[in-house]
Design goal:
globular; 257 residues; alpha+beta; Aminopeptidase
Length: 257
């Protein structure tokens, strides 16, 4: 489930996801060390800072739940400082077993998301101290959600679900993400509604805006193991994207989702 506090900052600058010299790099948490780091960062945001999650069942200042056993995790790191600045969780289960289905009566539309080949995007966060505009929080978020898309598509998943506040829905649509309502709203740490989408169609506009001039291949994420060894399934096929010169001047500064 997405738990959200977002601030919207208009910086007047275009986010270029195709830069190979980006300040931020994304890692798949494919080791126990990386997963522990992820849980510790989540504790800082969701427990110590926001007080949103119950800490009675956690230990060693880590935040986790049973759904983490069915999830993959991505972490964002600042290349300059070496500090971890954000992360996201991808829960890979049939829709009936996703956390969102515990709170909402999900209306499954196979056109937008196959019920057995889907994921719920949750625990998206930016750590304290990394949310100001000068820290390019918008780029952190875009890199995390793009890497999540690539990881899940490479593994045959077709669609995604999320439970979000109205303000976040507007911000995602402004960003270019296309998705559909799949149930009635629910009161859960604020008013939220369930949404779903298809990985290819939902991200089409974002793909267009991320396409740089000329031909360029880039990796969306690397493996935490091996000091950042590239996952062979993580290479982006930029040549398949449609160029769009409109761009966007919107950057997001999230606390946590």
């Amino acid at each position: 489930m997405w738990i959200l506090v977002w601030g919207l900052v208009l910086l007047g600058t275009r986010l270029d996801m195709t830069r190979t010299n980006s300040r931020y790099e994304i890692f798949l948490a494919d080791t126990q060390e990386a997963k522990r780091k992820n849980y510790q960062l989540r504790y800082r945001v969701f427990c110590a800072e926001k007080g949103w999650e119950d800490t009675s069942n956690t230990g060693n200042d880590m935040e986790f739940d049973p759904f983490d056993d069915f999830s993959a995790h991505l972490l964002a790191r600042d290349r300059f400082s070496g500090e971890w600045v954000g992360g996201v969780r991808m829960i890979m289960l049939p829709v009936a077993y996703l956390p969102i289905s515990r709170l909402c009566d999900i209306q499954i539309n196979s056109k937008h998301s196959e019920p057995l080949k889907c994921a719920e995007i949750s625990r998206l966060f930016i750590v304290p101290g990394s949310r100001d505009g000068g820290h390019s929080s918008g780029e952190i978020v875009l890199r995390l959600i793009w890497a999540a898309r690539e990881y899940l598509m490479r593994r045959g998943l077709k669609g995604w679900y999320m439970l979000i506040q109205p303000s976040f829905e507007r911000q995602l649509r402004r960003l270019g993400l296309d998705f559909f309502s799949c149930g009635d709203g629910v009161e859960y740490k604020g008013w939220r509604k369930p949404y779903c989408g298809d990985f290819e169609e939902s991200f089409r506009v974002i793909c267009d805006r991320m396409q740089a001039s000329g031909q360029l291949s880039a990796q969306s994420y690397a493996l935490y193991s091996g000091g950042g060894r590239v996952d062979k399934n993580a290479l982006l096929n930029w040549h398949s994207l449609i160029s769009d010169k409109r761009g966007t001047n919107t950057s997001f500064v999230p606390a946590a989702v």
